[in-house]
Amino acid sequence: MSDLDPPTEEIDDQATERGETLAPWLVASAAVVGAKHVVVDKPSQDSVATYADQDCAVVAVADGHGDPRHARSDVGSRLACEVALEVFKELSQDILDQGRHHKEWERELRLRLPGRISWMWNQRVREHAGQTEPDGAWHPDVDLYGTTLICALLTRRCVVLFQLGDGDLVVVSKAGVHCAFPPSDELFGTATWSLAQADAPTHADLICCHPRDLSLLLLCTDGIRDAFVKKPEAFLGVGRWLHSRVKEEGLSRVEETLPEWLSELSRRGNGDDASIAMLKF
Amino acid sequence: MTDDIDPLGAVSRSQLHFFWLADCSGSMRMHGKIQALNNAIHESLPAAREAAAANPFAEMVMRAIKFSTGAAWHVKDATPVDDFVWKDLEALGVTDLAAALRLLKEELTPEKMGRRALPPVIVLLSDGAPTDDWEHALMEFNDTGWGRPGRTVRVGIALGKDADKAVLQKWTGAEETVFEANNAQRLTELIKWASVTLSKFASSGASQVGGSESGSPLPPPPPPVAVVADDEDDDTW
């Protein structure tokens, strides 16, 4: 991590305060160690990060794979969130400066953003692995750090939604609640695409849209959806319920109570880590 | 008050699907192998129930297919291990493994199992060589959603030295997941290991990277074979 990248927690606190006072959008997040991991004293493999200022808001969640082959996936997920914040903050300036239509951005970003995120994550991970001045090309060492990444950028002109791997990016809008990206038909069981794959950029999904009509974004690690395995249709109810609560109680109050709710979900469900980042328009 | 209800009420544990594929062809009558299999599964159930009770984050459900001349469900419904009852199998007929694989294939669909689930555990027990077009059936099985290599935890248990281990290896995809039982005690050990250790392994829930099917982790091995005297090395059922 460079000097330019303050710790994620520091970014979260400062950004949330700035977002609530200066911008028309708010960000919040919560992450809990899964009940199964609490029992064996294993750290969470999830990471979350949020940022908001007058020009943009960024939210990110990442889910480290957690098995012995990816023994440093908790670090991998933290680095993924840091990279997401850095890349999206830079991108927000381009979007504000250039004022292009969101579909133009979508065409361009599909070509370059997955590769950019992958390159920067590989580089950070290889630095963490002890390599000297590595570039961002894939290297076998990155496998230890395997993680997913879901992130979103909001500016007044354009929203960018990005997902690589499992988990869900839930969109609450005037039209209802839906997942931005359907699950891959190629994946079964606990399989996921990963930033640690040599061809990671080819597995990324990205869309851009106008922020008009959007109410709330929820970025969820797979621990949330997997808790509804017997009633998968109930998963989108999380979006409706949180949106309703945010409207009535405010985002800060929801953020305060969310860890307890996530812990209960993990305890009643499959015991996985559970993390949510929220962006309220 | 919010109009939408707290979705916590819809939360549930993951299900771990466990399948026995049991050969009950006529040769299983020789040396009492079929009774040894029946006894081994009876004996393994208490340990499996104990292991399931110790895991509050996954519900283990069992089913069984029997195959000889044709194949049929021995236990068709996905039954919680606490309620699972093993009725003794009888041995008669040939070894239609293909028929068993086709039955299993009908269940392991995304429509019936969903896509997000713990990897099902499938244990194939056989004492001989298939008598039908098993290779074609296996190819079809391996080409379906859940049947694709790496999406299930597969083990083959050879009952006796006459079992065709090459077939079992083609089924599991790895030599390391085929085991030989040459006596009732070893069979019991392997069946206990399968129902306890494999279910723990499959319910770990750790993510696997997509597209790395050949790189799926191997399950922990069963307990080592007890040392036997030279004259006891052959099948002793």
Key phrases:
heterodimer; A: 281 residues; alpha+beta; Phosphatase 2c, domain 1; five-stranded antiparallel beta sheet; disordered N terminus; B: 237 residues; alpha/beta; Rossmann fold; six-stranded mixed beta sheet; 7 strands; 30% helix
Structural summary, described in words:
Chain A is built from 7 helices and 11 strands. In chain A, the strands form 2 sheets. Chain A has a 5-stranded antiparallel beta sheet with strand order 1-11-10-6-7. In chain A, strands 2-3-4-5-9 form a 5-stranded antiparallel beta sheet. In chain A, a hairpin with a 4-residue loop joins strand 2 and strand 3. Chain A has a domain at 8-26 and 45-220: Phosphatase 2c, domain 1. Chain A has helices spanning 8-22, 35-39, 73-98, 102-128, 222-225, 235-249, 251-268, and strands at 26-32, 46-52, 57-63, 149-154, 159-164, 168-173, 176-179, 191-192, 205-209, 214-220, 274-280. With 237 residues, chain B is α/β, with parallel strands linked by helices. Helix content of chain B is 30%, strand content 22%. A 6-stranded mixed beta sheet of chain B has the order 3-2-1-4-5-6, sandwiched between helices. In chain B, helix 1 (33-53) runs parallel beside helix 6 and helix 2 packs parallel to helix 4. Classes of the chains: A alpha+beta (281), B alpha/beta (237). At the A-B interface, strand 8, helix 6 and helix 7 of A face strand 7 of B.
